[in-house]
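For the sake of transparency, this paper describes our internal protein records without simplification. The record that follows is passed on verbatim for readers who wish to inspect the format:
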Amino acid sequence: MLKRYLLAPGPTPVPHEVLLAMAAPIIHHRSPEFIPILAQAKEDLKWLFQTQQDVLILTSTGTGGMVAAVTNFLSPGDKAICIRGGKFGERWTEICNAYGIVPVNIDVEWGTAVDPQKVEDALKADPEVKAVYVQACETSTGVMHPTKEIAEICRKREGTICVVDAITAAGVFDLPMDSWGLDVVVTGSQKALMLPPGLGFVAASEKAWALNKTSKTPRYYFNLAKERKKLAENQTNFTSAASLIVGLKAALEMMKKEGLSGIFARHDRLARATRAGVQAMGLGLFAKVPSPALTAVKVPEGIDGGDVTKCLRDTYAVTVAGGQDTLKGRIFRLAHMGYFDTFDVIVGLSATEMTMKDLGAPVALGKGVAAAEEILARGKGA
């Protein structure tokens, strides 16, 4: 028998409290029974996003939220800066192209965070740009971009909004929407929110809602103005993913018990332990500015990254993620976000050590685990 471990950066493990909540008999999404559930989830999402704005709930993946963040605020022919430092940064450009928005691409070496000065320079060079699209965490590389600094640049420009993909950031590290002046924030259910895939979330500032009034991009399902109106009635515009929203309420209750500071400290501790363990076993980190959500690990010379993920999965029952696009076979990605704690890190590092030994890498068993334990054993406040 193999006990399976899900250590990938989405979907992530779901707590049994959330699974049990979702296992209850389904209720109708327009029934009086459902209204207080959505009402509570709505308020708790504001707490998570650190905003006074409504956080709209879409029955979609996070990509649906990204699409909505383009189609609801811009019009065909508008220009938007897209920061492309990985697979998901490139997705902003692809969505813009699909809807007639003109992307102004800032290409960043994969593994590197964008220099905010490049954003400033691009906006000065083209003042007609109406939006800057950026990942708070680029999931494909494990990089954390300087979201606060980019938001400060956009904040000075009345007609330019800062749109943040926080799909692997919300609930991982501090990303206060209102105090930082983030205009649109997008996330998804299957990451730090500890749910199965199926819900997308979008919150928008009043500055963004002003652009919404002039946006002429065609939209039907992802119509955020209609979603905002329905959410005021504690409803969603179309059929709600009722069981997922029941689970969302349970997950947010768990998160509130831990508190935002506790959540951020836990993710930071797990990330530091993972990075220390990876380096102690002789492997390299790919991201120059690593995110607390996941660790991208360089595959040693002479070993195929596909063999690493396959051995982890098939021999040790540990599922991680490989590299994407040009990074395929070159890196693998260990997550530590959401329903993760001390021994998830130990399992991931131990399985990595054994996998590397199986594949012929010169790894001494236990060195990575020991390095991580030095951090993890110091307690929650470390």
Summary: The first helix runs from residue 16 to 22. The chain has two domains: 16-257, 259-376. Residues 259-376 form a domain with the Aspartate Aminotransferase, domain 1 fold (CATH 3.90.1150.10).
